Amino acid sequence: MSESTEFTFKQIAEHNTKKDLYLIVHDKVYDCTSFVDEHPGGEEVLLDVGGQDSTEAFEDVGHSDEAREILDGLLVGTVKRVPGDPEPQSKAAPASSSSSSSSSTAGFGVGLYAVILIGGAIAYGAYNYLQAQQQQQ
Ligand code: HEM
């Protein structure tokens, strides 16, 4: 079997046992049967997502390059979507993480400006208030 083999969600879902375990990561299909006993994160987590799209579960852990190399070796095909199938999970692949991290930095920058502006406005208001109080005395 090769990457050109296509599996529908229905076909993949049938491989959901410890003795026959397929996972989907980034729309590729991996046969994890031989790896399930060796997984450093335990067999339970793999069985939980057996036969399903586990892209988010896989990416959430922040797996190492070594883990991704193992994954490459388990590749058996790609997902063939038919109408009604779940959408691809959106977690970015590590290759695009530089752009997503820069956009999150930009988000932080905007947030920081907002904090400074609001903080400044409050300080200005407080200063005016105190001035007015002093003039009344
Ligand atoms: C076939 C797909 C997978 C492969 C090849 C794989 C491989 C690995 C490898 C090599 C590690 C050791 C740490 C590292 O190198 O990053 C690891 C750790 C881990 N994996 Fe996976 N993994 C897969 C899928 C999953 C999935 C779907 C989950 C779901 C939550 C998961 C959860 C974990 C956890 C929690 C650890 C950390 C274990 C620890 O540090 O105690 N893995 N995995």
Describe this structure in words.
This protein has 137 residues and is of the alpha+beta class. It folds into 2 domains: 6-80, Roll (Flavocytochrome B2, Chain A, domain 1); 94-136. Helix content is 49%, strand content 15%. The protein is built from 5 helices and 5 strands, in the order E-H-E-E-E-H-H-H-E-H. The protein has helices at residues 9-13, 43-48, 55-61, 65-73, 97-136; strands at residues 6-8, 16-17, 20-25, 28-31, 75-80. The protein has a 5-stranded mixed beta sheet with strand order 1-5-4-3-2. A hairpin with a 2-residue loop joins strand 2 and strand 3 (20-25). The longest helix is centred in the last third of the chain and has 40 residues, at 97-136. It is elongated. Residues 96-103 have low confidence and may be disordered. Protoporphyrin IX containing FE binds next to helix 2, helix 3 and helix 4. Protoporphyrin IX containing FE binds at residues 23, 30, 32, 35, 39-41, 45-46, 49, 54, 57-58, 61, 63-64, 66-67, 70-71, 74.
What is the fold's blueprint, element by element?
Elements: E1 6-8, H1 9-13, E2 16-17, E3 20-25, E4 28-31, H2 43-48, H3 55-61, H4 65-73, E5 75-80, H5 97-136
Parallel strand pairs: 1-5
Antiparallel strand pairs: 2-3, 3-4, 4-5
Bound molecules: protoporphyrin IX containing FE.
